[in-house]
Amino acid sequence: MRIISGKYKGRRITAPKKLPVRPTTDLSKESLFNILNHHFNFSELTILDLFSGTGNISYEFASRGSEEITSVDTDFGCVNFIKQTAKEFDMNINPVKSDVYKFLEKAKTSYDVIFADPPYDFSQEQFEKIAELVFQNDLLNEEGMLIIEHSPQTKLEHLPYFSSSRKYGSSIFSFFEFTEEEDTNEEE
């Protein structure tokens, strides 16, 4: 994998082959960050990277200037790899070894961008539970965005706060945001 843009643009990161991961492709990642570029100033963002695997998405945010990044994965090897890579590149990434659902249930911090890339073989309910826990526990800032990467077999457009989706190859990014209409209703 390589870092697409920012301070470490073009740097290649090679993860150990034994890690149980399916990294987001460079093409998908580049497309995702083109979308995010139009919404955010990266240096001001707090990031939560769920099912972070190799840390691919976390490194991209760090390279673009985000300084508050939490990467959560259940695999000890993945968490160690992120910790070592972040240290090597002097990136402010906080890797956490935890079950993502337990982390979301206990988290007390809210984030500007939450990115989740669970295994594609997760059930529909497991995907839905990610969005449910994020919004139920107020983990997304008012102007924030939740992005869930999934296969075409998973359908998330029926969930509350769904705003759009984009397909890149065999990956779909579903975006969730608070809308102005929902914000207005909450204030009444």
TrEMBL record:
Gene: rsmD
EC top class, as a word: transferase
Species the sequence originates in: Paenimyroides ceti
EC number: 2.1.1.171
Keyword presence, Nucleotide-binding: no
SUPFAM superfamilies: S-adenosyl-L-methionine-dependent methyltransferases
A UniProt-annotated Pfam family: Cons_hypoth95
MF terms in GO: 16S rRNA (guanine(966)-N(2))-methyltransferase activity
Keywords: Methyltransferase, Transferase
Keyword Methyltransferase: yes
Name of protein: 16S rRNA (Guanine(966)-N(2))-methyltransferase RsmD
Transmembrane segments: none
